[in-house]
Every structure is written in structure tokens, then in C-alpha cells.
Description:
10-stranded mixed β-sheet; rod-shaped; alpha/beta; 2 domains; about 290 residues; Ubiquitin-like (UB roll); Rossmann fold
Amino acid sequence: MIMKSTILKIFTILLWLLIGSGLSFLLVSGIVKEQANRCKAVQIDFLDEKLINMIDRKEVFATLWPGMDEQYPIGKNTATFNLFSLEHHLSKNPWIQDADIYFDNQHTLHINIKQKNPVTRLFTAEGYSYYLDDRYNLLPLKQTDHIVLPVFTNYYVNPLGMKKSDSMLLSRVVGLSDFISSDPFWMAQIESVYIRPDNGFELSTQVGDHVIDLGVRSEWEPMFKKLKLLYQKFSREDAWNRYSNINLQFKDQVVCERSGAKLVSADTTHIDSTQLVQKIINNNINPKYKPQ
């Protein structure tokens, strides 16, 4: 009986030792696993290739973790990160178009950001100013911005929301901005674009004392091709200040107005617009053309 009791005690002790060892192993394994699942680094990538970023790394951190420094996420368990919530916070930044946040196999937190693309700067009659992106979003100004873009003035912000006519206007604004920005000559020459109450466009220029009337058209290339032909004449004759208004809003017409006197008209129904401008240049006449 004594032998049996001793063996039972030894077995019980061994059993508790095994249980203790197992618990210790599980505890150590849990700690090691928890340490392995901690955030090792944070990598922020801007997916668009822009010369100037309107948001930077510090602003991203301030949006995601207000009041914390850039070391805050490092060392925290990856399971505690609500990635969907973090993406939602970034989406509230008016300059961010899209954000994708995830952990890779090395437990690095990746934050991929696509910025909105401003194409022009708008000024209202009241003196307020915004940027406009290629999706017709109004973007706020920032103290750190240094973007050179086409400028449009007298823009009206509809307090009741955007209507169809507003969308059509912004479509023309974006189209003209893209055209101007793509040509260094026009980017340098055009000082601003005035938006009339009828949504027609008038251009103010850097060189020459004249206003260019585009009306409500949106065929930019043929209009500016005619204008460039006129500018060639101005350069040859040093006539940059001869005209007060150049009207390009009619398909087959160029209407030039001297200071104090309008030009005479002629039929252009069957005359190519390029030939028409060349006729004005070659004959040095001042016609205001009217189709029959």
C-alpha cells in the first residue's frame, strides 16, 4: 500500500509538472506570437505622379492619429487596427480621392493614397477662391500650395446644389483648362478666363490690350488655331494693342473690333475658317463677317 501510494504521489507530481510546462509553453508561445504580430513599420505611398503633393506624410498621420507622433502605430498589435475605419478617416480629407490601407506579411502597415487632381483655380465674384479637380469637385486652398493653373473668375457657387447647367459649365471649364495647360504658349499668354452670366468665356491676356470672346462654344483647338494666326499678324505688324476685342464664338467667323470702331462684315458660309483668317491678314481688311 505504501509503495502504491508513493507511486501515485510521484505520478501526480509529474502530471502537475507536465501541466505547468504545457501552460508555460502556451504562455510563451502566445507572447512570441503577439510580439510577431506587432506593427513593424508604416509606409506611405502617393500613387499619382505629381510635381507637388497637396498632402504630405505629416498630414496623413495627423488625420489618422490626431495628437500622436509618427512612432505611435509601431509596436501595436496588428489585430487592434481597424483598417476600414482608418480608410474612412482619410476619405474625409478633401484632397484625397482614394486610400488603401493594409498589412503585408512583414507586418508593415501600407497606406496607399491617390490624390485629387486640380486642373484650375476658380474665383467667385465675392472674392472666394477654390481649386477645381477633373471630377468637378471644389477643393479648399492650402497655405502650402504653389500650383500654377489656369484661372477662372466670376464663378457662381449654387447654394442649392449643382444643376445640369452647372455641370455643363464645369465640363467646359475643365476642358478649356486642360487645353490651356497642355500648351506652354497659351499658358503664358492667357492671364484669366472671365465667366459671363450666360456662361460664355472671355479671355484676358498677358500681351495685348484686348479681350477674347469665346462665347459658349467648347471646340478649343479650331478657335485657338485661328487666334494664333491672328497673333502671327500682330507680331509682324506690332499690332498687339490695335484691337480691343477678338470674337471667336462663331464657327466660320473671326470678329475683330478696333478701339472705337467695329469691323465690317462679309459672307463666310463657304469659306474655311483658317482661310478666312488668312484673308483678313493678307488683305488687311477689317470685316465683321455675317453668314447669309
